[in-house]
Design brief:
8 helices, 0% strand, 172 residues, mainly alpha, flat
Length: 172
């Protein structure tokens, strides 16, 4: 990996940490006990936002990862572990719904029932539908822009380091 790539990755990572830290440090509303209606509204909101896509393969992926870890120490059981992976995955089908429930409770704990209903109304509106369809493109383009900036900025930082070291009579 080239120095520029390492520096750009470091710059991007630092930028993300600095950019996220203040937001995370903001005072967050205390979680409240969620009502059934608020949880239902949160589930509808998350469904509209197609959040289930994020964790749709969580169960088979975790089952597979677990098998791979067990396989590292039990190579002689590869055939059995491959067969057991299928059995375990089938027995746990649907457990990803627990993630959905947890997310809905989290949303219902920080947003009021009315706020959730308002968000559902928004995402059902033409503008909300457009946002759902084009926001991933905007996010992707934003990430590409941030990566390009980080790479360019890393080159500037690298050049300044080299210049300062040259002033000290040290070529790097």
């Amino acid at each position: 990996m080239s120095l520029v790539r390492v520096l750009s990755a470091a710059a991007l990572a630092l930028g993300l940490v600095v950019g996220v830290a203040p937001a995370g440090a903001q005072q967050q509303p205390p979680a409240k006990e969620a009502t059934a209606a608020a949880i239902a509204a949160a589930k509808e909101l998350l469904a509209l936002k197609n959040v289930g896509q994020l964790y749709a393969n969580a169960v088979p992926n975790i089952v597979h990862q677990t098998k791979e870890v067990l396989l590292k120490n039990n190579l002689n059981y590869q055939k059995d572990l491959n067969e057991v992976e299928v059995v375990v995955a089938k027995s746990l089908v649907g457990r990803e719904k627990e993630i959905a429930d947890g997310m809905a409770k989290a949303y219902a704990g920080v947003f009021t029932e009315q706020e959730l209903k308002d968000m559902v109304t928004f995402y059902k509106s033409p503008l909300g539908q457009k946002m759902l369809s084009v926001e991933p493109i905007a996010i992707q383009q934003s990430m590409a822009s941030m990566n390009a900036w980080a790479q360019n900025f890393a080159e500037v930082v690298n050049a300044q380091f080299r210049a300062e070291m040259r002033k000290r009579g040290k070529e790097i």
